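Handout, page 2. Input:
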Amino acid sequence: MTKQDTDVLIIGAGLTGLTLAFLLKDLNIKTTILEANTRIGGRIITKRNINQAPIDLGATWLVPQQTNVLQLLKTLNIDVFEQFYGSTAIYQPDPNKQPQLVSLPNNDSVSYRIKNGTQTLIETLAKQLKNTSVITETSVLSIQLKANLLEVQTNNQTYVSKFVISTLPPALFNQNIGVTPKLPDVFTNVLANTHTWMHNSIRAGFTYKTPFWKHLQSSGTIYANSGPLQEFYDHSNAEQSVYALSGFMSSNLSDLSKEERKQLALEQLQSYYGDQAVDYLSYEECVWKDEKHTTTTDNNFLMPQQNNGHPVFKNGLLGNKLFIAGAETSPVFSGKMEAAVSSAIHVFNSLKAEINSY
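Output:
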């Protein structure tokens, strides 16, 4: 098997990996991104059907305080628009009680969504990386320090790189990739016990011909303490020309079939909106537990956000040749898109110092 040389090898073509490659592109170094999945984007997925609202099934919302990701969007000329919540919400605290239309408190804070879906950010970043190799369906198996370089073994190729940055969720890195020499026990213990954001979430959405929920006696904002749909929101496009409802489904339904989940969701929506809820155009979902390139099977036993942003992630390993990055490693907005971008910026600054002294 031949060996491929690169200066920087990034594991994972999600938001952190693509942002890091974007930051590195002007440094006149060879950068390679390896992605185990058949697609790029990581925990960002947007389903688009012709003449229907785009449905985000992964990372979706931003707030004004998330300055790094908003600045990146501005740099890439990508527009955001305000999430519509309305002044009321459908609230059902108990399945045995009738749903109520409740007033939402006045809230000066806003949430934004990315125009044409969050995947627009992934697609735009990828287009900027003309001199970066992005290779899908390539799983990293091991990383070994040899002399002053790192040898990376994959399922179909060996790479030799000056620096390696993993952007995988830390628990997934710990489970799937062997490192020689062995990393310190204190570090591997944190890796193994870092909660993976969205690891058991189910995102779902329905597109519709009309926004029938937009009138005074109804709402597109749903909060239910039980039942298949727990949080649902208006997911119409920025132009308000195509319409959808989308949000989170109970993770307890992950073992059902897609058809069974859809039927349960429709029954709940029908109880709120009547038969017009059943007249949908398309149904989209993502059961994140089934995304083997995103999560591990044992993450259920960790507390939400456990070890997210842990101080051990700040520093490089193997003589500052190996870095662990990603949304779980940033102490700021851990798990969110802001954390992914902030992590990329942190590693970029660390790498730049190392490259300059190389």
